[in-house]
Q: What sequence folds into this?
């Protein structure tokens, strides 16, 4: 099997699993219990949180642990005030955001910000939609279907100017920047201060950590509303006995990333280039999607217009190559990807789109083999439709 | 399915399940040009109930791709809502217990799907039902335990003539074995047990979304004593044993519903006369081949998988399609709205709806 869908899920590494295991059995204690063994578990938990936080230039206390990115995104939106005001929307989100953002935001007055054909944010559209009532902007660090990396620092600068304007006008409405960094964490060096974000979503599942663990970084200025009430854990925002094993695993996965991103980026760039080259030899010309310059190095979103991507996926799976079309969540709802629609693809291009995302399970050899198999399947599918017409 | 010179085209309804998938292989192996069709009848998610349609569609398409047959999606959502779901809700609201699967076969699968398939060039349609189409007749499948003619008795004669049932002579265990032999990816898929279109959902949970709750009394049939309360008489079916919210001792059975007063009558007495009948009145009688006979000796099936039992059918008003079946012994009375299906030997003659 050759796995080319690391944007959907990653295998938990042996090292990570080893670190987690004791917390299911001998170190099972509730971190809030009063006796000493439990206190050790508490310390391990807090230490793990610090490791995760430090990797993005924050402190352990700045994080609220969640059940994953979806919950962290939903929690981030509680930053918005509850009183109603007339004029402009309170939240602006990018039209290509993940469903967890687009569905959560529906509870609030919101507007969508446009992207260009490569999936990059249209900054002038952002400026136009920004009003004195805007309280939160949500733009993912990298898109989960295209891998397009957004210029968060530039967005932050625009927001800074707006904040200044508000101060001059004695307008005290807060304005925060949230970003879902689920997809970027494994390859980008992330620092909350440099990015200029107030809220940042993290996800262990995409970096060879366990599923069901995520975190929301919260800057000191942001006040969130309690999300799950109970014993006051996680600053009272998200109560419930801590997922110690999960967080320890998350931290171990973060540690494993350290200092390797530059060499990994290079490796994936080379593999993606080879793959592109192979696919260009197919009998139907591939359309490579996303932004050439500003794209996660392990992403290769591609369309074979005229072909049926679902058929390609099933044919490829028979030959042991696993790829995906659009986001897994959107595909399981039977809907065409809103991301591919937003970047202006034709319905033929959307129907023929694959998302290839490389990762820890890939080597020069298996990517080369996968490329050959994809090309063969594409060629035979092309023959098939040619004979139909 | 044995003879097949110049290649004929079959449009096969594919649900993503084992039965229709095995049917696809059998048709293909028999030399037909097979076009798999997923009928999109319902895609709405209700609170807390995820409609399985997209996964079913993916399963069907995966099989079609593996077999290298063409695959289409027919969208019948609008018709399904009005012809099947609305009919079902109206019947329940009227205090009856309808069978949506029978309606779906009559109105959607063997009407819209049939017509659309012919329009697009099909010589035949096919489904993974356990039933037989032979000599222009609808007949029992070989697997008596799985036979699905109960759900098919109202489908048109012309559709039966042009329908292939590839599973007619196979038993379910053989079908499962074939699925494994053929390496079908869904060979181990669990059969859906809920309402066909919403997946594993209890019918009552579905109805709650559409029918207003209306609390009322549960009374003892013999003593008229109030035993408890229900949340809507329409949710209860004659003979039903569960969910009465009256605890303790022997189980209670629903023996009568008074919709006007919104009272459900129950009894512990299994011999309660309202639960049993020797004669069952029918309406909306449908004979697959028009008949002038006002009386005939037949076999009947009162629910899917129930045994075939001898009975005499009598037309009481042939114009109004009213009649009755007279049994040799008393049976537990089927609820109003349910179907009774008629057979002559292995031929499905038609049936009627309990009044």
A:
């Amino acid at each position: 099997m050759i796995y080319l869908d690391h944007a959907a899920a990653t295998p938990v590494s042996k090292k990570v699993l080893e670190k987690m295991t004791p917390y299911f059995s001998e170190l099972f204690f509730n971190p809030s219990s009063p006796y000493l063994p439990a206190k050790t578990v508490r310390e391990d938990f807090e230490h793990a949180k610090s490791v995760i936080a430090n990797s993005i230039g924050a402190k352990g206390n700045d994080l609220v642990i969640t059940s994953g990115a979806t919950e962290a995104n939903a929690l981030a939106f509680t930053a918005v005030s509850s009183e109603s005001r007339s004029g402009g929307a309170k939240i602006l989100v990018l039209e290509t955001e993940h469903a967890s953002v687009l569905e959560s935001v529906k509870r609030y007055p919101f507007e969508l910000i446009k992207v260009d054909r490569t999936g990059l944010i249209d900054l002038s559209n952002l400026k136009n939609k920004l009003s004195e009532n805007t309280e939160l902007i949500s733009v993912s660090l990298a898109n989960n279907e295209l891998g397009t990396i957004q210029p968060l620092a530039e967005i932050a600068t625009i927001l800074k100017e707006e904040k200044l304007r508000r101060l001059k006008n004695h307008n005290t409405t807060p304005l925060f920047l949230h970003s879902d960094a689920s997809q970027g964490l494994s390859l980008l060096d992330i620092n909350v201060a440099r990015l200029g974000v107030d809220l940042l979503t993290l996800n262990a599942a995409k970096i060879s950590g366990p599923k069901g663990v995520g975190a929301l970084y919260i800057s000191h200025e942001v006040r969130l509303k309690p999300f799950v009430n109970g014993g006051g854990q996680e600053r009272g925002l998200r109560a419930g006995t801590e997922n110690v094993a999960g967080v320890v695993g998350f931290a171990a996965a973060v540690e494993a990333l350290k200092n390797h991103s530059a060499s990994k980026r290079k490796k994936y760039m080379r593999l993606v280039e080879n793959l592109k080259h192979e696919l260009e030899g197919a009998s139907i010309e591939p359309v490579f999607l996303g932004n050439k310059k500003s794209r996660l190095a392990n992403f290769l979103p591609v369309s074979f217009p005229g072909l049926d991507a679902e058929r390609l996926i099933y044919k490829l799976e028979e030959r042991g190559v696993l790829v995906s079309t659009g986001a897994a969540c959107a595909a399981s709802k039977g809907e065409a990807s809103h991301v591919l629609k937003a970047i202006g693809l034709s319905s033929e291009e959307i129907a023929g789109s694959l998302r290839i995302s490389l990762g820890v399970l890939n080597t020069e050899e298996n990517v080369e083999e996968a490329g050959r198999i994809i090309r063969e399947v594409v060629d035979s599918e092309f023959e098939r439709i040619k004979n139909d017409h | 399915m044995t003879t097949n010179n110049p290649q004929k085209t079959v449009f096969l309804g594919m649900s993503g399940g084992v039965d229709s998938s095995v049917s696809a292989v059998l048709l293909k192996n028999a030399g037909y040009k097979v076009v798999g069709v997923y009928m999109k009848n319902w895609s709405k998610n209700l609170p807390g109930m995820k409609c399985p349609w997209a996964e079913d569609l993916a399963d069907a398409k995966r099989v079609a791709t593996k077999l290298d047959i063409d695959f289409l999606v027919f969208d019948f959502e609008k018709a399904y809502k009005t012809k099947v779901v609305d009919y079902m809700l109206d019947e329940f609201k009227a205090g009856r217990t309808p069978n949506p699967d029978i309606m779906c076969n009559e109105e959607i699968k063997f009407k819209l799907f049939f017509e659309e398939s012919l329009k697009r060039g099909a010589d035949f349609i096919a489904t993974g039902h356990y039933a037989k189409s032979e000599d222009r007749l609808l007949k029992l499948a070989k697997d008596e335990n799985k036979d699905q003619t109960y759900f098919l008795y109202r489908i048109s004669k012309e559709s039966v003539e042009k329908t292939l049932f590839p599973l007619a002579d196979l038993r379910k265990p053989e079908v499962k074995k074939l699925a494994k032999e053929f390496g079908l990816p869904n060979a181990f898929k669990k059969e859906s047990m809920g309402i066909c279109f919403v997946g594993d959902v209890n019918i009552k949970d579905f109805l709650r979304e559409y029918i207003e709750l209306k609390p009322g009394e549960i009374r003892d049939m013999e003593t008229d004593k109030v035993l408890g309360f229900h949340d809507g008489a329409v949710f209860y079916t004659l003979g039903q044993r569960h969910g009465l919210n009256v605890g303790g001792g022997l189980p209670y059975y629903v023996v009568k519903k008074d919709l006007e007063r919104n009272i459900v009558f129950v009894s512990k007495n299994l011999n309660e006369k309202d639960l049993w009948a020797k004669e069952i009145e029918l309406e909306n009688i449908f004979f697959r081949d028009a008949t002038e006979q006002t009386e005939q000796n037949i076999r009947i099936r009162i629910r899917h998988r129930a045994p075939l039992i001898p009975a005499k059918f009598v037309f009481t008003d042939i114009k109004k399609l009213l009649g009755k079946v007279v049994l040799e012994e008393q049976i537990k009375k089927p609820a109003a709205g349910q179907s009774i299906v008629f057979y002559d030997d292995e031929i499905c003659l038609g049936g009627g709806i309990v009044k």
